[in-house]
Amino acid sequence: YPRQHALQTQLSEFNQTMIEAMMGSYTKVLFVRDPFQRLISAYMQGMGSSPSFSSFVQDVLDGGQHNASRESKPLVSLCQPCLIQYNYVMMFGFLRQEVGHLLLRAGLPKDIRLPEFTDTQVQWTYKWLSEQLFSELSLEQKKQLSHFYRWDLSAFQFSNSLLSG
Fold first, then answer.
1. pTM
2. Whole domain around residue 126: which residue ranges?
3. Most exposed of 17, 87, 98, 152 (fewest Cβ within 10 Å)?
4. 34-48: per-residue pLDDT in tens?
5. Where is the signal peptide (predicted)?
6. For residues 78 and 74, what is the distance between their CA atoms, to the nearest angstrom?
């Protein structure tokens, strides 16, 4: 699509006709990750000044979805999967297989060298860490988090998410 915009231009700055034309001309790929793991990642990266994970979660819940940071905001509100028809949705934990498949579908050579993906290897660490941090939360916080991320849990199949229970 002929680019008539700068690299930093937000999609929302275009009119509906232009958005539809641009979106129809691109291959759209969405990378998704379990919302609870995203929350842990935000906490670990120091996105919150809270001393404990439980108080960090409470800050996110108290702030609500509209005030949440990009790292803790539900994916559905960030990526608009109901409005944008993504060609591919790729799950964290399967990136090596899925990116390889995507590149083949895009017609790139089979012998293309892919970067080393570590998402599969870190999954067991996140499983352990998720269980530890989840156990720190009150029953009410767990319920509120499940509600906070309900659209993500409905839109994407996070079958092993602690929030799905």
1. 0.75
2. 11-163
3. 17
4. 999 899 988 988 866
5. none
6. 7
